Amino acid sequence: MDSLAHNLEHRYPKAVASLREGLEETLTVHRLKVPDLLRQTLSNTNAMESANSVAASVIKRVKHWNDGEQILRYAVAGFLEAEKSFRRVKGYRQIPLLISAIKKGLEPSSSTLIAKTA
Fold this sequence. Notes:
Elements: H1 2-8, H2 13-31, H3 36-42, H4 46-59, H5 68-83, H6 95-106, H7 111-117
């Protein structure tokens, strides 16, 4: 992946920056042998970006902030609004397999996995 990024960097610098940003997480998901459908969900930030976008649209409606408590209330209101559009995680039935793989990765005998994913 590093070689691919290096070869493409001069032509597609933004794409390569994005690739490098998520490289470690992507490789971790592959090392844990997460099933394909769940891997698709975990290998991108679409759900987080969508929730942040909805919350930001609620927050930007406020013209005057009284205090930090009010900011938190509006942030929570924004994320509660975003929650209304949440859908079931694709591959959610495979989450127990992911949990099992993570637990195996945390066992002392699999220190190479821990070192690679840390």
